């Protein structure tokens, strides 16, 4: 049914803010921020009642023709079902909070208004992605998000590192997006529609028309490429760590809470499709698991506070993807929501730390607990949530995923995920202990607590990351999972105490080990690093993947470009244009190059013409009897020719 | 007036040209304003024609017919439809903006603007002529002013570029002339009248031969892969407004020729050559992309990028289905606006820095923010960012080509990635990074320049957000064409 | 038709003849030669006024002179050519002096001779009229008393011409032997029948030499560049157009009346020669540095294109030849008019003299550009109509190779024509601004420019004149 | 006695060939002019012979011959005139020395 209020407003409000800020920014100055925050708050205010109605079982959809694909009309519109409303809820709230925080964080930046313009544009795009009802609209908004991410990563574009990072981010995701594009082209070829609900009905009602499963599998696989790109899954995860060049609120908003999660959302959206293409799900699981483990492993050794968080994000996204791969739609989405809250909180906390200390390297920090208490406390809460300590939100969602893996009989995956959980706890608390505890290692750092404008959102989010897990917990009888199950059917499993126990154990073990290593026995860290040097290097250098890419993909691309250009200038141009060998040869045969060729027209036909010219000219001896001789010769030739023919 | 609107559109520039001819050499302001007002009038006329145009109708409309050379029953036959009208409109806009861009011309203004208006007449005529003979005449009329405009006001190697452009195109068009004659004599009764020729049936062998003859003419203009080498030279050497015209309108004349003549006249041959066309399209897309990646000259990069983008038009043509045609047609329009804008931007930078070396720039984003924003906008449009026109056309083309061949589509997507790559590298090398102190004095883009770019940006966004505003004009005609081709 | 009643239809020619003598007469007494020139111009115009199209073809002087639409067309052609040439040569300084009057007189004779050529319908008549034209041409070429080049050109022209016509004469004698008559139709009939069929194949070759020489068809074109370079520029202008055109005229008449039966046979030959001619002309023109020599080669190439029409020799082909000649008349004369002007004003015929002409004298440059474009066959100019016509004929006759070669040739041609355009517009001026052109020459230029444009834009008018 | 036609034809052909040979090898322009006369006369010989043999119009051939003689005379006259003029400015009558105009 059609929503009571124009849903289109939800994305359009932030977009309006963007338009105003980008055009009138230089006059708005800091008022730009107010505009953005206001619009996004308004969007939030519009969205939450709607979500509430959906939670109560409502279902909103409306659409209008945008374009004719052949004979098929392509309908653009919105679709508010459990999945999208959940994300809508999360995005509006988190987004608004982060913008409030940014008001404080970005104060005094020369391109203050520009920043908020971009963020508003991003909000608009993200909201469109969430409520869109078909793949094309989804893809368009998805690309716009990519653009915003590009612009915001490169916000400090005077830094070459930032310039490179934003380009890298855009191109890497672009590769995935092209896969996505091919994916839904294939889908269109298979079922003749791009509309989500139509797709669901066609696929689930498969009896009516026999479906081309291979084509569907291809579609599913290629669409998943989009996820790999956007959600920074292996092998396209390389861009996300570099993306930390952007301002920290951006990292929190785009590269932790919302955009990167959109990839997971895509899989969730296409869940029926994936379900219909069973031979793709293992791939999804594999990718997810590899990513989750690998990223966590890298995070163990990083020194940059934001990079640690970035890898942790990748790892958590891996979790979600794994869950979806095991067709745990509820689990995946649940973790997406909870993760959004506490990871955003972590980043904002990190931002606050950076804001207070102006350093990012954790080796230079230490003992900040006293200096910036509220930051520290919220940070720790979030870390606990991430580590999966009950009753914080992270615990419930992670537990759901582990449960799915365990109960669906993928014991190996379960083991890996458990190990990952352990590592997660370890590196998070390594971070905490090095940052907030011990003594200040760098005297030059004079830390101070951030202004209220920044700490308030921290607390808000902290509350969120504590309570947001409740709907999925036994306390509410796993309401969330059931709610999701209404939309699309997937196997549900009975909660098992064994799994809970394992996850708690892993988390606690990780925390304790971190405590021992980084508070008591400092030397252990170095020793282990020495002992397992290869492993350490592997982790520290991120499995050398960037180097591999630059050596085997980026450089060859440019090389091909240069080669083809050379080809173009010499061969293609030469074939017609004869700057090359032919001309030189001819010129050597006879020195006929005269000024006209040089400055005029070095064209093969031209060259050839000139070559002939050098002969025909010579015929013209100016000696009358030669002329006559030629005449007579010609006549004789003709005569002989004739007499033969007679 | 209403009945002869097309003639007015075609010949108003000529009137303007003669007006310019009778203005004394040194009153350059008058000349410029005459030219500008002429182009504005033409644009106004195009808008008027837009009022008369029935989008829902597939066939030719606003037809004007008069016997020209009775002995060969050559007619002065003008008419427009969903294929040509967007091109007329595009030509009107581009000419207007490029005219604004030409105000910077410093020497021999009188000749320049005279030739400029002559050129506009030629382009308009090419797009509305429905008589093959008349079409050929206009087609050739375009060449000569172009030769002078590149040759006199161009860059250092202008003479080479000009003559190369001229001879290349002339060679192609001469073969096209032979093809036209072939069609003429094959038809009974002998006629050049498109409205009659379309219906007639021709032998496959004959179709193939003549198709090739036309192909040579059009392929060189587009330009399609092996015939593209004139393009970089011409683009690099030509003065900015002329590059804009070149990219915005002239390249389209080639693909327009395919739509208007090759396909309807030789449908069987078109089907027969479909694979070849597809292969050439892919070659163009990927090849152009790679070569553009290797450029260090800003303008040359844009030039090669248009080789790549025009490849998509060809791909849509090769797809031979509704989406392909629509995509190709739309791509023709959007490429005109986007690449035109990019060339204008190159010009803006060149006027200030007198350099086009990408490696020499850097950090201009801070120095000239407005310019940076606009350049980024056009680059994104060119790399097919959604909500901008380029995306819609490329999406439709890919959708169409997917129905034709999955492999081809897969390969062509490589072109999209490449586009993103070379454009972002360009953006980084020009706008991002540290400011090269050499350019610390550069001033930001000024109002007049913005004025020339704003309309294009509006068009790009409008089409990108709601493509039907233009597609609805094309679709009936294209569907009719499809019926002819597919039989 | 007998002599007396023939004279009724022979008025314009008589006027020219009388006028010529009158001019020579006045030349003796009048000191101011300008008046002589004006007088001859007047005579030409009067003659033109008396030309009228006969209702049906007339066989004048016992069918020695066949006055039909064809001849009528060339009558006008000749008169226009001579008139324009005179206008050009008024301002040609080297002519100034005691002999200027004779020059005009000779041109009147030339006009008369050309008309005879157009109408000649008898081997004897053909020989005589062609020789008449040649003799006067020799004299005109060698007209500049002091100029060694002019003399050399004249002697070469004379030797080459005499040999060519001697060969043709020998062929004529054979034809006479075969048919026992000199009247073209009779000869034609005779060649229909056996023993002489093969003789036709031989005899046509002799005409190829004799008339090929006149139309500068390769390989009988060798004289042309030297003669054109050496001759006084107005004479060159004239020679490249009028005698050549009339050569084509008589060639066509001979081919259609006498050798039609063996057409399949010689059209192959002509195709080859046409290709040879245009290719040689274009290729050699590429690297010329003397504008007159340059245009000489270009005119050879043009002859090659016209030969396409001859080779096809369908209705369309024959009309093509006429149209092309008409277009060529305006275009080439125009180009040479400019050459004369620039030669006068800069005193040099080198291409270098044209550098930056667009700044030194914009109007002249613009005119020359138009003429060159027309030569290159760019629409909408006269040259294009001509080219279009012969191409059309060739395509219709399925002479595909010929057309393709011609197309390639036109590209090469376009290149060297644009060399001059480049010089005029793309290179900087080599001297001060030039004075405006003298009035008569300006008038001539205007006329020819108008001709080029009109023929290009409204070919219908001219075609209707030819299609009859 | 009557000379068969063939003999005359062969003779005229030889005469023509001789003239042609002369034209090609003589360097002196006067000589070339004379050789051209030979060629013309060869043609004349043909005409006369044919006019004798043919039935249709005997007189035309002879008339033609007379005209040709006249033309030959004019040609020679003009030629000599030009040669004189040439000699006046170049001081030579040899073809291989008159080659200002070439290429």
The strand count of chain C comes to: 2
Spatial ordering of strands, largest sheet of chain B: 1-2
- The shape of chain B is globular
Order of helices and strands of chain B: HHEEHHHHHHHHHHHHHHHHH
Task: Give Rg of chain C in angstroms.
Answer: 21 Å
- Head-to-tail CA distance between termini of chain B: 38 Å
Approximate strand percentage of chain C: under 5%
Q: Structural class of the secondary elements of chain B?
A: mainly alpha
Indicate the mean pLDDT of chain B. 90
Low-confidence segments of chain C, given as residue ranges, are: none
The percent range for helix content of chain B is over 70%
Shape of chain C: globular
Secondary structure layout plus pairing:
The complex is a heterotetramer of chains A (646), B (487), C (468) and D (103).
Chain B: H1 5-21, H2 28-52, E1 61-69, E2 74-80, H3 84-101, H4 109-128, H5 132-153, H6 158-186, H7 194-197, H8 204-221, H9 230-237, H10 240-265, H11 267-293, H12 298-319, H13 322-353, H14 364-367, H15 369-382, H16 389-404, H17 406-431, H18 447-465, H19 468-486
Antiparallel strand pairs in B: 1-2
Chain C: H1 3-8, H2 11-29, H3 33-50, E1 58-59, H4 60-63, E2 65-67, H5 69-90, H6 100-119, H7 123-141, H8 148-179, H9 184-192, H10 197-214, H11 223-230, H12 233-257, H13 263-285, H14 291-312, H15 315-346, H16 357-360, H17 362-376, H18 382-396, H19 400-426, H20 439-457, H21 459-466
Helix pairs in contact in C: 2-3, 2-6, 3-5, 3-6, 5-6, 5-12, 5-15, 5-20, 6-7, 6-12, 7-8, 7-12, 8-9, 8-10, 8-11, 10-12, 11-12, 11-14, 12-14, 12-15, 13-14, 13-19, 14-15, 14-18, 14-19, 15-17, 15-18, 15-20, 17-19, 18-20, 20-21
Chain D: H1 5-25, H2 29-53, H3 58-90
Helix pairs in contact in D: 1-2, 2-3
